[in-house]
Amino acid sequence: MASLSSPFTRCYCNYYDYNYNKFYNRSTSTLPLHILSHRNNHDKPCHHQITRREIVLRSSEIAVLGAIFKFSGKKPDYLGVQKNTPSLSLCPATNNCISTSENSSDLIHYAPPWNYNPEGGRRKKTVSREDAMEELLQVIKSTKPDKYTPRIVEKKDDYVHVEYESPILGDGNFVCVGGKQIVDDVEFWFPPGNKPIVEYRSASRLGNFDFDVNRKRIKALRLELENKGWASEDSI
Questions:
Q1: Which value, to the nearest 10 degrees, does the dihedral of the CA atoms of residues 144, 149, 155, 160 take?
Q2: Which of these, 151, 157, 208, 218, is most buried using a 10 Å CB contact count?
């Protein structure tokens, strides 16, 4: 892709690098959205008044980048337990989603369900579904993988939808949108029946890759739940 850099005055922009799990302060153009590929040793505060021509040029760049990276923060309309075949949604073709609904042969998208009353586990006695739900909610509220902030937006007796908000927008490739956050959707579902199983799905709304953020998030939650006696049906 051709470079979209331009000789505009540059401002400071924090971004989060998933590859190293660190925050950095890098310079970015006065564009609300810009791709940075090199350090700029001539950073300076922004006191530059843009011309009408610059506004038009920058608006064009924003439109192009928005189309490329699919910057859309809308909640997907396919979340929740599916009606035809009760289950959570499958993942899209992108590499930024994992789900227990996927086939186990799909190594990119599949993740094994959890068991809150595993045989041979740490529990001295089994817990009810209601107690397991409370344990899950406690872990969700107290765990912030990769510094994402959880926000429970929907809760039913057998279902929980959590939105995880990033500290800032960034994906390790110096893409940033001033003031906006990445939102990932994570769902948990207790299927009907006697099996003490919890299904889940964790997916990013933006981009095509997540640098394993969703898988790391689920693993962090699972490790906390294991301290309460839960176990994975397999390892991820």
A1: -50
A2: 218
Q: Give Dmax over CA atoms of the chain in angstroms.
A: 71
Contact of 65 with 35, CB cutoff 8 Å: yes
Residue 73's pLDDT band, with cuts at 50, 70 and 90, is: low
Q: For residues 158 and 190, is the Cβ–Cβ distance under 8 A?
A: yes
Q: What percent of the chain has pLDDT over 90?
A: 50
Burial of 99 (0-12, 13-18, 19+ CB in 10 A): buried
pTM score, two decimals? 0.67
Residue type, 118: P
Residue 140 backbone class (left: φ over 0; alpha: ψ -120 to 50; beta: rest): alpha
Q: Which residues pair with 155 in a beta bridge?
A: 160
Q: What is the DSSP letter of 179?
A: T
Q: pLDDT: is 42 or 145 the higher one?
A: 145
Count the Cβ atoms, other than its own, within 10 Å of residue 61: 19
Q: Say if residues 162 and 140 touch (Cβ distance below 8 Å).
A: yes
Q: How far apart are CA 225 and CA 232, in angstroms?
A: 10
